[in-house]
Amino acid sequence: MATPLITMLKAGLPAVAGLVSALIAICALAGWALGIGYLTSVVPGLPTMVPMTALLTLLACASLWRLRETGGGRANVAAALLTAASLVILLAHATGIPLPFVVRGSAAGARSLASPVTALMFGALGAGLLAMGRPRHVRHGQVLALGVLLLALLTLAGYVFRDTFLYQLLPGKGTSILTTTTLILLSTAVLALRPNEGIMVALAGPDPGAWIARRLLLSALTMPVLLGMAVAVMLRVKAIDVPTAIAFLVWGMVVLFTVAVWRFALMLYRIEVARRLAELERQAALESLREADANKDDFVALLAHELRNPLAPIRAAAELLRIQNGADPAQLRRTADIIARQTDHIAHLVDDLLDASRVRRGLITLTRVPVDLHRAVCDAVEQVKPLVAQRRHALQVELGKVHPSVLGDHKRLVQVVANLIGNAAKYTPEGGAIRVEMRMAPDSVEVSVADNGIGIDAALLPRVFDSFMQATRTAGRADGGLGLGLALVRHLVELHEGRVEAHSAGAGQGSTFIVTLPLLQN
Asked: What pTM was computed for the model?
């Protein structure tokens, strides 16, 4: 996947660098043809871009443009010609054999032959362009281009330090500022051709290491150059002597590299901290997924068990109806009651599943109207009385004489309280006690459901409102239910802008659930 930096490098930099270099070469050729000196040299008296160097530049631009258009894999004639011409020039300088089109000893010949340093850099650039056209040799082409770039930068620095050995070694051999500029542009363009391959991956990639490398490389390129220019200026104006300049340069480089290394260490530290946090989050998410998968398996097993329980009595009742001919009405009513009770149980399971699905998808909506909470609690008590009576619990309801009004959905509030009372009935051994109370506060009203049942372990208490949590911890019980009731209670209470809390002293100590709802302001 291409990052914005890679896209910018591939799309823009090679084209711009090639175009500017070609314009410089054309202007130099025009300067020689028309006798305009400033087109061949920036400053009179400095080395000029000779016609042969301009032609080498145009060959490099043509090769660069072909690589940019085709992406490599085809013959690059311009790069081959550039490499061959550079080698011929180097051979002519080394052996003293005159070239057929250069009259040695004449002024024109001396001015038209590219310098050895220039020919060396263009030869390396041509070899790099040839390598860039072959996917297996992209790295080698980038290394050659990087070498040309560094040598060109050193040549440019030679112009800053005039009257030095560095100037005599590089610019003094005849490599002009224009030639150095085009070599810098062309070598940079070659590096930008394949930013997501070879050695450029470490610089242009999207990973944190590449981001750090870009920042450090910028510092490594700019800080020493600026420091060297400052020292050169001070020497030129004779503000300091040479030993002091050397000491200042060494000390400055030590300081600059110390700062760069320190910044690099800090960046690595921050990246490592972020990586560790991400790893912890990944581990937590993975553990959550594993737990959810385990809960899913437990839930599927529990669902099969809960559906099988009512189906067995229904099957037995249907078989009884089939084999009994002329049965008495009382027996028929008992059989019909079994079928009705078990089908109601299945319908309740299906309703729980549908409500849980709606909760996960956020599809439950409320009809928000003023609701008499006293009446809603009474309706919930009436709804669960058969279950309470079946379990032979003592149900105590203390609602007082007040009728607080809340803004909400009467049906859903009945469902909340009924689920809490039903939950208490299921988790309290037969003959237990359940107490339902309603208490007023200045701005809210509380409805609590307490029992003396099996209680809740301290480890499970914070997660008692999670889906399937009850089903997981009580999969062996025979009372029915899928462990979705409390999760639905929490969601419905939150939709009413309220809160629900669970309290228990521990296993065997009973439990208390408290629902708090805001009062309707008159």
From this structure: 0.53
Q: What's the domain count of the chain? A: 3
- 29 to each of 26, 54, 81, 122, 266, how far by Cα in Å? 5, 7, 19, 18, 51
For the beta sheet containing 499-503, the strands, ordered from the edge strand earlier in sequence to the opposite edge, are: 394-398, 433-440, 444-451, 511-518, 499-503
Instruction: Report the candidate in 346, 312, 354, 301 with the shortest Cα–Cα distance to residue 475.
Output: 301
Residues 407 and 435 in one domain: yes
> HSE of 109 in the Cβ direction (CA atoms, 13 Å)?
14
447 by DSSP, 3-state: which? Answer: strand
User: Is 105 buried (19+), middle (13-18) or exposed (0-12) by CB count in 10 A?
Assistant: exposed
In a domain, 36, yes or no: yes
Nearest Cα to 377, choosing from 359, 391, 392, 396? 396
Please indicate, yes or no, if residue 19 is contained in any of the structural domains.
Answer: yes
pLDDT band at 362; cut points 50, 70, 90: low
Question: Do 348 and 382 have their domain in common?
Answer: no
Q: What is the pLDDT of residues 404-428, one digit of tens each?
A: 999 999 988 998 999 899 889 988 9
Residues 302 and 395 grouped into a single domain: no
State the Cα–Cα distance between residues 401 and 413, nearest whole angstrom.
19
Strand partners, 511: 451
Q: Give the separation between CA 418 and CA 380, rounded to whole angstroms.
A: 5
Same domain, 425 and 303: no
Q: Is residue 432 part of a domain?
A: yes
Task: Give yes or no: residues 377 and 335 share one domain.
Answer: no
CATH of the domain at 499: 3.30.565.10
Q: At what angle do helices 116-132 and 77-95 cross, to 10 degrees?
A: 150
- 3-class SS of residue 91: helix
Burial of 195 (0-12, 13-18, 19+ CB in 10 A): buried
Facing residues of 450 across strands? Answer: 435, 512
